[in-house]
Design goal:
288 residues; alpha/beta; Arc Repressor Mutant, subunit A; Rossmann fold; 14 helices; 56% helix
Length: 288
Amino acid sequence: MIVDNLINRLRTEMAELPRKESAVAQVVLKDPEGTLNTTVAALAERAGVSQPTVLRLCRSVGCDGFPEFKVKLAQSLVSGLPFVGATVTPDDTPAQYTAKILDGAMAALGEARRRLDTASIGAAVTALAGAHQILVFGVGGSAATAQDAAHKLARFPIPCRALTDPIAALMAVETARWQDVLLIVSNTGRTKLVNEVNAAARKARLHTVAITAPGSPLAREASVAVLVEPAENAEIFTPMASRLVHLAIVDALATGVALKLGPEAVDRLARIKAVLRTTRIPGDGEAG
């Protein structure tokens, strides 16, 4: 699979571009990583041109608009198979790509362990353990993590439910009590719908806990932010290792809540385990 390298194209065609479009290209080439996290307006200001000029440059290099421009720029900055995995190549064997995925997951978990601010874990646990109700919200790839979090937290004597529809989340926030806590999972922290739900929750004076990327709008606006650097470039790759890190953090939060609530939570977990055992077919040597 051959991916058109946008950076090389900008370099080779910059001299032939109109002067103002060339100025935009120079800014992009000077800081391509920063361009991935900027807006049309900000890029235009840095280049000293109008926003339409930025869009004209996008079309000049074969992109329909700025979002596609950023996707192709991201492709130029990373190796791997776009939209699949950063370390995977098209000719990998099952043994090779399986090993790469597992190695990447282990590396991401190790990096998260080294960099995680455990004080934020403690603050999040305090908020969750003291909640009247816990609402867990996530969309897209984070929806499954939100459901997993609700599944684990629902075992405690605190009402808990997962919300994966933004409209349902807004409705839940509007009808929530001020003692309720909204737990948000977002890999990038830049999804508009997620930030809108967080803003609505904060307006309703709810405490919000976010598992999200550092420096993101969600990280800045949440009451407590558990920060996790994305293991993949979300502009071009599907989050894999990042999702596993989020799931591990959910386990840490659930463990913290169990310890915070004390014997009552442990007794409740024991009763749940006893009920679950009755739903399983006994293995060899086990009682029926």
